[in-house]
Amino acid sequence: MEAALQLERLRALLAEILPRNRFVARRLGDFGELRDLADFTTRVPFTHKAELIADQAAHPPYGSNFTFPAAAYTRFCQTSGTTGRPLAILDTNESWQWMLGNWRRIYAAAGVAPGARVYFAFSFGPFLGFWTAFEAAAQHGCLCLPGGGLSSAARVRAIIEHRAELLCCTPTYALRLIDVAREENIALSAGEVRTIIVAGEPGGSVPAVRERIRAGWNGARVVDHYGMTEVGPVAYEDPEREGVLRIVEESYFAEVIEPGGAAPVPEGGVGELVLTPLGRQSWPLLRYRTGDLVKWSRDAHGIALEGGIIGRADDMVVVRGVNIYPTAVEAVVRTIPEIGEYRVIVSRRGAMTELEVQIESPDDIAAGHLESALNQAFSLRIPVTRVAADALPRFEMKARRWVGAG
């Protein structure tokens, strides 16, 4: 039934955008009738972020990927620009409401009831996820508490003062607020946070990260979520299977392909997630290569992404023949409670890539424990250095802990 619904919505999407959208028309030409989903994956090319950036450079400032007249667009957002020039994206109210509907599905899966008090611990910049999460919660009937413009300490106090039951932030920032509460002698146990929805980086499905957040927030349930500015809110955590994400399949047609290739990855394998939003006619993307890696399977409830987002295809480094993803390193670091913030230095020695981990900890004992744990996990000696307290950067949004030497 899901496949039939997706095919119906793909046909409706193509019928809407092909006559009006110059970007899509240039890529598909005289497309004709869409016979089935296999026909879609055979005849429609992938969309790469680099193509969208080049289109906006050629047709500034917003490119040519528009289906409706300019006056129909009411929303602006942009990507973070962590992998290049930011993409500027406009939406009509209809497409915006479609994304809010997907967010409400995420809230429902997390057990968020109308009337819940929700705190949004981030500054409201031009990033789609912040605004859609906030407005969808309001439509869901929640009391929405914005934390924009406040210091981390002020946010912790507001969370407790306003008796917030649900916290929305990145995994890194959930951990940061624990440290801030400790520094300010604020007891998080005095608050009422029972659920934390995390997004923006893969840590939400890393067991060690979840456990540290849960412990610091007085046993609060940690719920992962996945979305992208380019495609909108995509997946929610399965209420019955911790650490497993479910794609909102009535809203997205999903594929998993070989990283750097084009062939489908068999069920149970790891590959790059490719998404086609089925309801964002105003700024459509067909077969968008997200760059995010997932391990997928399918059951009676649809596609399951086991372990959430594993990492990004372009984040993997090869150290002495061993493939290492940032999430795998984080999973090891977070098993050692004495380690606060950390950073990974990536360097080259001739033709070899090397890693060094810097940590903040009360003493040098944690560095030795982490070196042993990394060696056990990867069969590599990765040096660990303790640095001064507060020497490493803190992050409110996506953490950028992997840096090049110098």
Topology overview:
Blueprint: H1 2-17, H2 22-28, H3 37-43, H4 49-58, E1 73-78, E2 88-92, H5 93-109, E3 117-120, H6 128-139, E4 143-146, H7 152-161, E5 166-169, H8 171-183, E6 195-198, H9 207-216, E7 221-228, E8 232-237, E9 244-247, E10 252-257, E11 270-277, E12 288-299, E13 302-306, E14 311-312, E15 317-319, E16 322-324, H10 326-333, E17 342-349, E18 352-360, H11 365-378, E19 384-387, E20 402-404
Parallel strand pairs: 3-4, 3-5, 5-6, 6-7, 17-20, 18-19
Antiparallel strand pairs: 1-2, 7-8, 8-9, 9-13, 10-11, 11-12, 12-13, 12-14, 15-16, 17-18
Helix pairs in contact: 5-6, 7-8, 8-9
Q: In one word, what is the shape?
A: globular
What CATH calls the topology of the largest domain is Rossmann fold
- What oligomerization state is this entry in? single chain
Uncertain spans: none
Number of strands: 20
CATH first level of the largest domain: Alpha Beta
Task: Give the CATH H-level superfamily of the largest domain.
Answer: ANL, N-terminal domain
